[in-house]
TrEMBL record:
Organism: Ditylum brightwellii
Protein name: C2H2-type domain-containing protein
InterPro entries, per database record: Kinase-like_dom_sf, PP2C, PPM-type-like_dom_sf, PPM-type_phosphatase-like_dom, Prot_kinase_dom, Znf_C2H2_sf, Znf_C2H2_type
Boundaries of every PPM-type phosphatase domain copy: 281-422
UniProt domain Protein kinase: residue ranges: 1-177
Length: 422
């Protein structure tokens, strides 16, 4: 089985370890530890079972765009870019850490396409592995600390270094499957194994494969955004250690509505593993802000004839923003069913679009008022939301908004705000 290995055409790339996917010459497996190939495949299958989806080593669209554009400017080949995106995904899982190798085989310096990049993780901890799993979890619940032994086992099966990667035999000896055995004599004169109390085998909060358990879907680790230590008023240049102080300063002196900070510290997109099909001309990225309470929602619809993007910034509760996110598209798409035909044949199509858009927002407003009036005890009666909508067809790009959620039109090196704050 481990004499010559499968050919490159015979293997399934999604389950093949990184050492056999890239390089000037195809190598079926590490000759010193050939079982490491199978260990990687087992680890990938385990991840797929945990997440309920294949193709777990994917990156968010923002990372894909930034890295692809950067490498294309340096003359990278499609194979180079594919390699870099794969390494970026492994980096988010804390399987691969970008290096400072001084090789010349990659166009971005140092032989490593991710060297010095802010879009991948420079260090790896179990917390980072948790975060990567949660970002790709369709339910967004992730795993609590009771799953640490299982995740540790998977992590060891997916070790980048083949010499550190567990073999199947070593995996079965992992603490996740471990029990201590004591012998107890029986009348039959042969020994029966009995399990010692699991509390004697496991550290606090851990569980293994032999214990029945209820998993708490709440995350019990710090999943906050990276620390940002400096916020700057864009007009006077005064810096602050926290955003609220800077924001109060800028607003009270009418210097600006927002403060600036180092964009390189932005966290990765929440939905790194997209639940939507890839679209050739559009993409999205959702980032969690500093507030603990989420009142903002977004909607994305990718149809064969059109695309819709909606952003809703709620306040005084999330009823209005959640209602708008779930119903604006359905109201809008009915009125824009013949938009392309109108653009081609109707000289007054812009006026018709404006009328339909205004009517849609009025209907949405009435729906929110009715929903708020039905909230228990009227707790959501003051709930409100902004709304910024983008509707794209083959013939037209329609943008509309209510409130201060901005839309920016970018072309080349310039940009314009295409909606006004209302």
């Amino acid at each position: 089985m481990y004499l010559n290995g499968p050919s490159a055409a015979e293997q399934t790339d999604e389950y093949a370890p990184p050492e056999v996917l890239f390089g000037s010459k195809w190598v079926p497996f590490d000759p010193e530890k050939p079982q490491s190939y199978d260990s990687w495949s087992i680890g990938v299958v385990a991840l797929e079972m945990l997440l309920g989806t294949p193709n777990v080593f994917s990156v968010d669209q923002r990372t894909t765009t930034i890295l692809s554009t950067k490498m294309k400017k340096k003359g990278a080949t499609p194979e180079d870019i594919r390699h870099a995106l794969y390494l970026a995904a492994l980096s988010q899982f804390c399987i691969y850490i970008p290096t400072a190798n001084a090789g010349k085989s990659w166009p971005l310096r140092a032989g490593d396409p991710l060297h010095g990049s802010a879009i991948v993780k420079p260090t790896c901890t179990m917390e980072d592995f948790h975060s990567a799993l949660r970002a790709r979890d369709p339910l967004g619940t992730g795993f609590d600390s009771s799953s640490n032994l299982l995740l540790e086992l998977i992590w060891d099966l997916l070790a980048w270094d083949t010499k550190k990667r567990l073999t199947p035999k070593e995996a079965l000896a992992h603490r996740f499957f471990q029990t201590d055995v004591i012998e107890k004599e029986t009348s039959s004169s042969w020994a029966l194994p009995f399990l010692l109390p699991l509390s004697s085998l496991l550290s606090s909060g851990e569980h293994n494969a032999l214990e029945s358990q209820m998993l708490d879907p709440r995350m019990d680790f710090n999943s906050s955004v990276p620390d940002i230590s400096e916020f700057v008023c864009p007009r006077c240049g005064k810096s602050f250690e926290d955003y609220n102080s800077c924001h109060r300063h800028a607003n009270s002196r009418r210097h600006a509505k927002f403060c600036t900070f180092d964009r390189a510290t932005l966290p990765p997109c929440l939905n790194a593993h997209s639940m939507l099909p890839a679209h050739p001309t559009s993409g999205y990225c959702d980032i969690q802000g500093r507030r603990r309470v989420i009142e903002d929602f977004h909607t994305i619809h990718l149809d064969s004839t059109h695309q819709f993007y909606g952003v809703f910034d709620g306040h005084n509760g999330n009823l209005a923003s959640k209602y708008a996110a779930s119903s604006l598209y359905k109201r809008l798409v009915k009125r824009f069913a013949h938009l392309d035909a109108d653009v081609r044949n109707n000289g007054t199509w812009k006026e018709k679009v404006s009328q339909n858009m205004a009517a849609t927002f009025e209907d949405l407003h009435e729906g929110i008022l009715q929903a708020a009036s039905l909230s228990p005890g009227g707790v959501m009666k003051d709930s409100g939301t902004t709304a910024t909508a983008l509707f794209v067809t083959e013939e037209a790009v329609i943008v509309a908004n209510v409130g201060d959620s901005r839309a920016i039109l970018s072309q080349g090196a310039s940009y314009n705000t295409v909606v006004n704050e209302m």
